[in-house]
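Before a colleague's protein record goes any further, I have to sign it off. Alongside the sequence sits a line of tokens, each denoting a local backbone shape. I want your independent view on whether this chain really folds as the tokens say. Where you disagree with what is written, explain briefly why. This is what I was given:
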Amino acid sequence: PDSKRGGLLRQGSVLAVTSFATRTSPIIRGVWVLGSIFGAPPPPPLPNVPSLDESTVAANLPMRERLAAHRSNAVCASC
């Protein structure tokens, strides 16, 4: 608790490999953690799930709010 060390998931190399060049990506990071650390990659998305793009969600929203809007779709929420 008093340690300033962040552990494996907070190392710069892990953060860099699990993000885009200009922004973070909780989706990419989650897939990497599931596959590389837990050894259980997630199944592929269902074919009827829309992508998270600027046409469906405002691009100026923070990533947390963009993902919340994406999860409001019942098909997306199950994943």
Q: What stands out?
A: The mean pLDDT is 80. Residues 68 and 77 are 9 Å apart (CA to CA). The longest helix spans residues 26-37. The two ends are 32 Å apart (CA to CA).
